[in-house]
Structures are given as structure tokens and as C-alpha cells.
Amino acid sequence: MDTQAQNQGFEVQEDDIEVAIRQPGQDSGRTTADPESGEVVPHHRQGQTSPPHRLPADGTLLDQGEHTTQVDQSHGQSSSEDEADDDDSENEIVHGAKHVIMLFIPVILCMLVVVTTISSIGFYTKRDGYLIYTPFSENTDSNAKRIRNVLGNTFIMLGVVVVMTTVLILLYKYKCYKVIHGWLIMASLLLLFLFSYVYLGEVLRNYNVPMDYITVILIMWNFGIVGLICIHWKGPLHLQQAYLIMISALMGLIFIKYLPDWTLWFVLAAISIWDLVAVLCPKGPLRILVETAQERNEPIFPALIYSSTMVWVVTTVEPDAGNDSGTSNIKANNMELVPLGETTVTPEESTVTESSPRQDNGGFTERNGDHEARQRRRDEVARREVQQRSCRDEQGEPATRVSVQQSDEPKERGVKLGLGDFVFYSVLVGKASSYGDWNTTIACFVAILIGLSFTLILLAIFRKALPALPVSITFGLVFYFSTREIIAPFMELCSVNQVYI
Amino acid sequence: MDLRRMKDEEKLDLCRKYYLGGFALLPFLWGINSIWFFREAFYRDHFDQQKQIKTYVIRCIIGTIIWVAIITTWVVIFQKYRADWGMIADDMSFIIPKGEL
């Protein structure tokens, strides 16, 4: 599975493997056991702009990737397999639920922002003009002509999406990171400044709040710049997540406002099919993106993906390392790591000094109460060892650090969802709510969440990146049309005749 | 970014950058900085860079408070005297509220 891609280049010594494996088995078995791939690692991508990711290991840091790999291998070979398996299934259940919740919250927030905006601010439902991507008018006399125009619009939209995705993949493939970053920064610049400026204006106008330019400029400047910093550079995780949700919501609102009615429904259907193709076909662009990212052991651009936890895997030191093969172990790790080149990155991330075992492990609860304590003890041991070692051989510092990290077990895993998924989910719900019928809105809302959970279940089964749009959007569309065409008239009839069900 | 995974030097560096960035009329950045590093500055056990981080955090807090005060005062003044200032205030207005009948 995915992890294999990362295997290359490492030779893992037997010792290491054992260690890596065992540890998981013992204490936090659940944690490590699954990392292998999976379940945890869900990802999804979305159709349009956003790419997917693989999760668990994906690391920003190489090591994690490796790490996982190690575990994997070992898994295959070692005797602890059985236990691990047990653990696995158990974990899957426990973690699965957490993941669902971790993704539900942002998705719900995003949809809520869009729905409330649509239902309270007239601007986003008022038609004025269309995007250039949808040149054909829907206001024609004959239905045949309308269908033709709608299909025409849909194909143009889809074409744009396909071309953009392909361009992105090509750029990524040929390592034009500068271009991609420039592109993404431009996009977020537009969303953070222009669209949110329009949004702010409409909100204030809607509530008739007087406002002066000085304050507005100051607010926009702060909002935009901080957003760019958080998304593209460094910022608190929650703030970054909030910004990503906001830009998805803004994007969704733009689609709702500027796409003609029927075109929008067709685009939703077309995009989810495209998502399916792009992610699952062997040559699908998004799949290539994920695989390339894994191969290179890089994270996918933060502006494209929402991750429920930090990508980095955290470090804790192996228990066994402490006693028997401690030093040699470290050494071995060292050797592996160094050739990687990117090692410079690593030491930064490994907080040797204060790596508290209690990281934000995204809901992967450690069940052993004393786990932390144990870990801490282990940390201590390792640290001491490291120190000793660095005393012993002078050149130690950086290398040592790296090694410590290396021997850590991956702790954090989260789920990733492409921002495009957020956008299209909220487009569907927002559009449904724009007709003012709450039954329909709620039906779509629930349908999308059910679809999302279903996708997460599939993720646990298949353990690879899956498209998040098809299931949810299909459910959403089915619920939308059935509620609007069947349930709503039925309910109306019932209430007219005073029948209460 | 997760602070727990950073080394102290990096934290200091990040904190400094946020602090300096705040001078570009970005009080929001100061606000974030003061909340983000609050724990590091005041609750964590002593570490080498703590003193500097503490200085930055305190300055950020002060900066944020001053900015909030300035903005609030300005908004209050503007809202209160907007009608009296006539044309000037109209030119400054992003949104001029509609009257009610």
C-alpha cells in the first residue's frame, strides 16, 4: 500500500525494527499499530482544487515517513503481528469515531457559515451576471435548448477544472514549487482580500451598520495578512483551520452567486464524477499528486488541504532502546537518517528538550493512564543517553537529535480533507437553502454528513486516499431533489389538510 | 504549527518575528502572539529563552491593548459624530446606513 512508496532508501536494521514494532504493541500499541497506514489515514481529496493527502505518515518530515515504513516492514516480518492485528481492529473502531467527529466539526462549520450567509444576506442569492465560464444562458424558452446550454456550461466548467488540475500536477511533477506557491498565494490573496472585502461590505450593509474606511482598511489588512501568514507560513493550528474554513466558505458563496441554477447542479454531479476519476484511476491527476507527494515525503500544500491535526509525527523514544541496544540503535538510526539530506528540518521539529508526550494527537487517546508517565521516563532515558553519547563523540549535537527523533514513534494522525470538498459540500447545502425551504436544507445537510461518514468507513476499509465528493454529493443531490419534489409538496398537502404525521 | 514540536530557539525566533511583524499595523498579529506564547512565557518551567519570549509577549499584550483602545475610541467617535461632520464623514464612510421611514 501507500507506505511502500516510502520505503526506498532505507535500510533498517533488525534491531530497529523490533523496537519499532514492539513498542507499539506494548504501550501505545494502538497508536503505532495502525500507523501503518491506515485507517487513520484518510484523506480525501477533492475535486477541483484541492489535492489529497495521505495521512498518517505523510509527513512533513521525512522521518515520519520512514518511521511508518519501518513499522510496516516489521509488521510483516515479526511475530507480534497477531497482537498488532487485534489492536488494529480495536483502534479502528475507537479512532474511526474520533475522525468522524474531527471532520464533522469543520464541515458543519463551513456549511453553517454558508447557509446563514445565504439565508440572511440577499446579495449572494441575487443574480447579477455570471462567470465567464458559463457563457450560455439558462433563460431560454424551450427545455431542449436549456438542457443543451446547461450541458455546455457544465462541460466548460469541468474542462476548466480538469485543465487546472492537470497544470497543477504537471507543475508539481516537474518541481516548479515556486510557481505553485505563487499560484496558491495569489488565490488566497484574492479570497482573503477581495472576496472577504465584498463579504464584509455586504454583511455591514445588510445590518445597516455605518462604517468608515479607516477601520475597514485596518480590519482587512489585519485579516488578510494574518491569513496569508497562517496558511502559507506558520501560525497556530486552530487559526489556520479557521482561515481554511473561511476561504472555503467564501469560495462556495461565490459559486452559489455566480453559477446559474441548473448549471450548478450539473456541475456538482460532474465534479464528483471527476473526483472519482481523478483519485481512483491509475493515471488520475490527484492520485499522481498524492503518490508523488508520498514518494517525495512531502506534505501537500497547506492551502489545498484541511488537516485535522498537525501533520508532524511526534517523537517519543522507544522503551527498548533504553536498555539493551540503546546506543547502537541510535547509531543505526542515525545512519539511516543522515543520507536523507533533509535532516536539517528534522532537528527543528524534534523537541528533544521538552517533547511532552502529550501531543495533540487528534483524538488518539492513549488509554493507559500511566502511559504518559512511562513515556516521560523513556524520554528521560533516551535523553540521558543522547547526552552521554554526545559527550562521547564530539560531533554529536545535530546528529544526535535527529536520531532521537528517528526512534520516536509516530503519534499523531489526523484526517485530511481537500478544501474543494468543503467548497462543494457547502455549495450544495447553500444552494439548497437559497430557495428558503428549511426541510430541504436540513435534508441536504444530513445527507452530506452521512456521505462523509460513509466515505470515512470506506477509508478504513480500503486504506488509501479516497475521493470525498462522490458519496456525499450523490446523497446530497438525491436528498435535495426528493425532498424538494416529493417530501415538500407532500408535507404541504398534509398541512393544508391538517394531517399530522 | 504546533509549539510543542518546536525547539525553544525556534519559538523565540517565531515569537520575535510575530512581534516585529506586528509593527506593520498588524495588531491582530500581536494579539495572536500574546495568546499563542502566553503559556510559554508564563506557565512553563524555566528555559533559556523564556525571558526574551516573556518580554515579547508582554509588549505584544500592551500593543494589542493600545490598538484595541485606539480603534474603539475612533469607532465610537466616528459613530457619534458622523452625522455632524457632514461631507467629510460621508467621504470616509464605507457604508452609509440607510435611514428608516
Low-confidence stretches of chain B: none
Spatially, the strands of the biggest sheet of chain A line up as: 1-5
Strand content of chain B: under 5%
Work out the number of β strands of chain B: 1
* Biggest sheet statistics of chain B: none
Listing every helix as H and every strand as E from the N terminus to the C terminus, the arrangement of chain B reads HHHHHE
Element-level helix/strand string of chain A:
HHHEHHHHEHHHHEHHHHHEHHEH
The rough form of chain A would be described as globular
Strand tally of chain A is 5
Q: How many strands, which pairing sense, and closed or not: the largest β-sheet of chain A? A: 2 strands, parallel
The computed structural class of chain B is mainly alpha
Task: Name the assembly state.
Answer: heterodimer
Number of domains of chain B: 1
Distance between the termini of chain A: 51 Å
Number of alpha- plus pi-helical segments of chain B: 5
Could you report the average pLDDT of chain A, rounded to the nearest whole number? 69
Computed over alpha carbons, the radius of gyration of chain B is: 20 Å
Shape of chain B: elongated
Task: Give the class of chain A from helix and strand content and strand pairing.
Answer: mainly alpha
The end-to-end distance of chain B, rounded to whole angstroms, is 52 Å
Number of helical elements of chain A: 19
